Each structure stands twice: as structure tokens, then as C-alpha cells.
Amino acid sequence: MIIFTHHTGEPHGILGAQMAATFLQQKLSIPSIVVGIERTFSKDRLLRFIGEYYAREKKVVAFSHLCGRKDLIQLVHELKQEGFVTILGGPQARQDYEGEPEADSRSYRFRGLKSFIDIGFQGPVDGFRSEHLSMRNRLIEHPWTKKIFLEVDWSNLYTFLDTLKKLEVRLGQVLNAIGCPYASKQRTVILPPPVNLREKGVRDLKVRSQGCIFCDVSRDKSFHGPVESDRVIGQIEGLPEFDGRKIPFELIDEYPIGSLGKLLEEVGSQKIRLSQINLVCRVDDINAHASDLPEILSQAQKQDVRIMFASIGFESFSDRLLQYFCKGITLADIVECVETLRRLKDRFGSHFLYRRDEGANHGFIRPTPWDDGETMQEMDRNIFLHRFFEDILPEHSTPLIIHHASYLGDWIREIESTTDITFGRDGTWIEWWNPFF
Ligand code: SF4
């Protein structure tokens, strides 16, 4: 079976899809590979490759991590018409299979993929069984637990641009926590209308969120706890090596610092040689552990391991927008965090990486529906005052994306239900910048 997924073409692994292919192969004896489709792929050539590959395989194809790409959705559709059994797994599988609420009576809403997906599969792959393959028009749900299957065959990944290429993974991923603890935090926020609708009589609305309001995984997975340390070490042992060391990997955990010191100790005592650990984490984790970081980094330095804060979720430099995002941090927290990072850099040099020019890409969301002269000025002032342009600001900001299943999706639908305004849909995304009156 091929599991198709979005891929940038960079040499990074795709943990969920690769783990799923490993499970299908090892536990269900279904030969499986992952093919990451790059954005500018040649469709004719891909269809030709699929035809050749499936000349000797059962016509069952799976998709995961569509990343909002309409070209991938169109591909599922076409393969279904060609007689393939189609499976959708990965993040947001349930919501993307089912579509938006009231899509039958409100035709502009996303209707879901159920008309051309045979099997929607929500949850970790360990719940998948061979007998599921004979089901049609079914959404199968399997709960997340801490005991999920965690083995990965890192050699099962290919990319497709205009031909199939085996990808030597140079950046892996290791799961340290299942879901995000912050995603279990209930919050409510009063959101004003998008600025271009201020004159249209749209009222402020109270919106409930769990975790960050734009997050498209918080609702999907929530939080199920840390992975036991021996299972984390097991994953690290399974990573490929390059130049006698494990390849750099991203430690998947929004709050990784509390367990990082122990992880380094354990790795050291087992004589596993690491090269680099990338952290994708929250500002409040760095601030809460600012006094522990020097000791952790000294340990990393002794083991000649680089620690990189590869992506920190700053998201905005305006207190008002941080509040609308339900980010749970303020600008003062961000300033404190960046000061800590700069101090650590002075002390630990090349063993500690966090800067844009060292490869980090921190979260900065702009434009948003609430950008006005005031927020823009506030943001530019803070960027200048705290010199975020030197090391923190990414080369490009990321526009606010509203996935239909995020809590901001609820906000948009509430505006639609209480006014005559509707918003455009683009695949699984809601175009907040594109209202119709
Ligand atoms: S954006 Fe990150 S920190 Fe926020 S809820 Fe989602 S996973 Fe957690």
C-alpha cells in the first residue's frame, strides 16, 4: 500500500505516516511505503507511476497529512474514480472526512471527503486491522493512549516531484509526549469581527477554545501524557546514523525541557552518540525552566550534542493578538524568554542554537483578521525595541490559517449564523479574508 502525504522535499521524515507504514508492514503483513508529494509535482507522471506500482498490488491507497492541499484532495477523488479503495488517516482525519456542521443546508461550507473516501481512520494506527480494508463508507475511531506503537522504519520514505526518489532522512522525529498539555486548557475569549467587517454590524463574539485558538491539532488529539523514557530511548536507538552519530531529530513535545536533562543522561549512560536535538516548544516552558537550562546545556556540551530551539511559538508581538490567539503568554513573557535565549547563546556558543541564521524558524502569525493601525504600530514598535529582527523574526510570517475544525472555525460559523455574511472555503481552510455579503 502507498501512504501519500504532503512533503516539502527537504530531507526530513514524516513520523506519523512512516510509523503507519511500518505498522502495516510489520503487524499486518501489508507491504507499505510512504510517498511524499511535493507541491509542484507532475500529475501525469505520478498517475503513470501509480499505474505501474499497482499493476502488482491490491488497489488500496491511503492519505495522511493533506496539509490543506486541494491538489491532494483532487488526487484522492481521481483514484477513487479509478476504482481504488481510499483511506484517510492522520491529523484531522475525522473532521476532514465528515466536513463542517450544517454543510448540507449551507452549500458554501466544506462538505468533507466522505463521498470519495471509503475508510476514514481517526487515531493511532495500532487500531487498524486487516478486516477494516473490506469496509466502505466508514469512519473508524481508535482512542489515543500512551501505549501506542512507536516503531519506525526510516527507510520507507520516498518523495515525488516528477519521479519517485528514495529520501535519505536527515532529520527524524521522536515522540516524547502524546498530544499537547496546553491543548487541554479551556479558555474563552471575546473576539471582535475581522477589521473589514467592523462597519457591517457584526458583533463581538464569545468563543470557547482548548489550547491555542488557531491550533488544528488540539481538538484532534488533546493530551494523553508523556511517553515512558525507555520508549523514548528505544525510538532514539532506532534513528539512522550519519558520520557515526544519530541524525538530528525533533523531540515532539510542547513542554520538553523538564525531561531533557534526564534524557541526555540516559543517552550518555547508554553510549548513544547524538548530533542534535531540535525542540519545538512553548515560551512558558522556557521561562519556567530558565534556571535549569544552563545545567542541561552543560550536559549537552559535555556529550557534544547541539540543542536547538528550532521553533518557539511566539506567534505575535502584540498583547491584544496574543490574547485573541488564546496563546496563554504575554509580550513580557516573550521578552523574558528571548533574553534567556540570548544569555544562553553567549555562554554555550555552537552547542546552543536558536537564531534564524542558525536554521530556527519561530512562529509569527501575520496577517490576521484583527490587524489594524494600532496592532501594526504596537508590533513594529516591540520588534524594534526588543531587536527581534536580529535573531527571532522569521524571514516570512505565516498568515493566520483557519482550518475548518479549529476553534476559529466555530467563530467564523457563528458570524455566518448570526449575519448574512459568508466566507469563502478553499479545501479544508476557511478564507477569513474573503467575505461575501
Ligand atoms: S499550537 Fe501548539 S501549544 Fe498551542 S495548543 Fe496547539 S500544539 Fe499546543
Comma- or semicolon-separated keywords:
437 residues, alpha/beta, eight-stranded mixed beta sheet, 14 helices, 22 strands, 32% helix, binds iron/sulfur cluster
Please describe what this structure looks like:
By secondary structure, the protein is of the alpha/beta class. Helices cover 32% and strands 22% of the residues. It is built from 14 helices and 22 strands. The chain has helices at 15-28, 43-53, 70-81, 93-98, 218-221, 229-237, 257-269, 283-288, 293-302, 319-324, 331-348, 373-385, 388-391, 407-418, and strands spanning 2-6, 33-37, 60-64, 85-88, 119-122, 138-141, 157-160, 164-166, 172-175, 177-179, 186-191, 205-210, 223-226, 241-242, 245-246, 249-252, 276-281, 306-312, 352-353, 402-403, 422-426, 429-436. The strands form 6 sheets. Strands 6-5-4-3-1-2-7-8 form an 8-stranded mixed sheet, sandwiched between helices. Helix 4 (93-98) links the parallel strand 4 and strand 5. The protein is globular. The termini are far apart. Bound molecules: iron/sulfur cluster. Iron/sulfur cluster binds next to loops.
Helix content: 25-40%
Output the strand order for the largest sheet: 6-5-4-3-1-2-7-8
| Shape, principal axes of CA atoms | globular
- Terminal CA distance: 46 Å
Let me know the average pLDDT.
96
Radius of gyration: 22 Å
Q: In this structure, how is the largest beta sheet organized?
A: 8 strands, mixed
Structural category = alpha/beta
Number of strands: 22
Strand content: 15-25%
**Low-confidence sequence ranges:** none
Q: What compounds are bound to the protein?
A: iron/sulfur cluster
Quaternary state of the chains = single chain
Helix count equals 14
